[in-house]
Amino acid sequence: MTAAARVVARTLPWGGILLAGAAAVLIAAVTRDTAAAALGLQLSGLLLAVMPVLAVEDPAGVTVAALPVRLAVRRLLAVAPVLALSAATWIVLLGRSGVPAAAASTLTLQVVAIALAGMASAALPRVSASAAAAALALAVAGGRLALPAWVLEPRSGDLRGLAVWVALAAAGATGLLWLSRDPAARR
Amino acid sequence: MTLAAVESRCLLRHPLLLAGLALSVVLLLAGARSNGAMQAMLLDGMACFPLAAGVLLAANAGGLRSRRDGTEELFAAMPSPARTRTAAQVLAVGSAVALAVGLVAAAVLAFGAADGLVVSHAGLRHVPAAAELAAGPLAVAVLGVLGVALARWVPSPFVAPPLVVGLLALEVPLDVWGSGAGARWSLPFVNAATSVPGAWVPCEPGDVVARCNLVVGFDVGGMALHLGVLAAAAGLLAFAALRPRGA
Q1: CB contact A135 to B (< 8 Å)
Q2: Which chain A residues are within 8 Å of B69, Cβ to Cβ?
Q3: Which of A127, A139, A148, B40 has the highest local Cβ count within 10 Å?
């Protein structure tokens, strides 16, 4: 399994993953200790959520589908190292941001929900990970302006907003599990 | 021109552009129920931000299409050079600009901006100038051409999404919150409203917190200069996109 993890890690799009991570750290650093700290942290979280989304796509998926290792395991091997990197970065950014605990919890819920929904989107047939990442960036960036404040504003503490993010996380997790079954099991 | 028409159709049908347009319409509808300061900011170009982000991502995806589909070698064997296809993609951005013009026109009608928007609690009224109304569509052009140029010079699908997020991280504090900082003029979307010096607090124009929305005027001259900068940026980016690689 360790050998498999090493092989899978080698095939990941590290350029895009590290670029998203670097952009997240940069945004959080620029907005730290300013009025836009919470916004910066939210957008950093979005980019950190994009990182595991990029790991979902497997260009060799059709070729290795016939191997005994199940799709869910292969996907876990690909996503786990990126998820660990993303989560560690998020914890560091959160700790250094000085954002109140309540807003930090809401932001963490948002990041988890975005990551799960994004990974489920990238797992859809004929949807590339980069397209899912672009759609996520557009939805959150555009939504930050267009949607009511209670949806995306971490300091609003609105229960409707929390319900939306919990529902999105649950839908994302369910979709990801469903789409990670072996193709044979789906028939 | 036929190729440009085909590229325009591809761009206008792209799901990311359509999603951006939908978000812009939602923003416009929210603006119609908000106050004059918010509406003025939207007419200054911010209503086009989601559309522009969608155009950037869609134009970038269009520029990377041949690479993604593995047809670069096939196209290399054709009589027209890669530059022709890039030129068609740059021209196709014009169709998205037309969409942005329609969006701004709809916003003017929906907000009743021709009769003047009440932009402050003191009752100050403002009729958006042509320079302000042109800013959004021109910013859409800049970001669209940027998408094509990025696809040509940094051919990776992972570059454009962080760019959109980074742009929003700058636009919200500098423009949506109306900070009045000089740095805002370096961004594609600018809020031309000027507030009472020292009175600014980070708030969105629709907010009703104390000391928010102390708008005293609009820097229309600055916006006209900004249009010049945007036009120059669009021209330079188009030139960069069309410049042969390795030249």
Answers
A1: yes
A2: none
A3: B40
